[in-house]
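Hypothesis: this fold can be encoded by more than one sequence.
Test: take the structure tokens below, design a sequence, compare later.
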């Protein structure tokens, strides 16, 4: 029973699985923000061209939406490893050396994101206390600025999970990976993307060309 719990990651595994719906929701909100901005752009073009009546504060709305689109999906991408990674070195490493490198990278990222959370919250607090607004339509800016430390906090927790998961595998490389990114080659990534689109029962071609 203890072995099975250790293979499932124990507390780390529970935190990893508990963060997944939060990251999925944040990424979904970012996707909706992108769709909403596209619809807003079309509406702006139609209103300006046909009715000579552009949307008031359109540029301000675009600026305020940037935070949600840029940052809310960061933790989701971090979890899947779909962000830009430097694999030239890590892709050649195995065993404890690999997980030591992953833990170091996660620790550096945690420090950087932690600094950004601190200063991002400071920017939100100033905007909230001073009643900061946009230049044109005078929309309040603090909701958009609050999204930055929130998104970075979710990202920081994901990095902390990967850091702990890397240390766990550094201590015992034979354990099942939990909360870490597993480097994959192009063929494996393509198969995973096909599974996501077509489902687990999709009839995938053999990457080696065998029947």
């Amino acid at each position: 029973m203890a072995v099975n719990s250790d293979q499932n990651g124990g507390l780390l595994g529970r935190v990893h699985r508990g963060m997944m719906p939060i990251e999925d929701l944040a990424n979904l909100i970012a996707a909706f923000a992108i769709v909403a901005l596209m619809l807003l752009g079309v509406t702006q073009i139609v209103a300006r061209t046909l009715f000579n009546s552009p949307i008031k504060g359109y540029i301000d709305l675009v600026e305020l939406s940037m935070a949600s689109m840029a940052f809310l999906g960061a933790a989701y991408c971090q979890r899947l490893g779909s962000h830009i990674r430097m694999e030239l070195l890590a892709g050649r490493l195995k065993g404890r050396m690999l997980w030591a490198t992953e833990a170091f990278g996660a620790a550096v990222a945690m420090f950087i994101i932690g600094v950004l959370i601190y200063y991002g919250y400071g920017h939100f607090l100033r905007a909230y206390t001073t009643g900061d607004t946009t230049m044109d339509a005078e929309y309040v800016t603090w909701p958009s600025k609050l999204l930055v430390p929130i998104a970075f906090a979710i990202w920081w927790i994901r990095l902390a999970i990967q850091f702990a998961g890397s240390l766990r595998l550094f201590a015992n490389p034979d354990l099942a990976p939990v909360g870490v990114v597993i480097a994959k080659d192009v063929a494996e990534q393509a198969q995973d993307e096909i599974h996501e689109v077509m489902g687990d029962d999709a009839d995938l071609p053999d990457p080696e060309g065998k029947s």
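The helical segments are 2-7, 10-51, 58-71, 74-80, 87-90, 95-130, 142-171, 186-198. The chain has a mean pLDDT of 84.
Hypothesis status: open.
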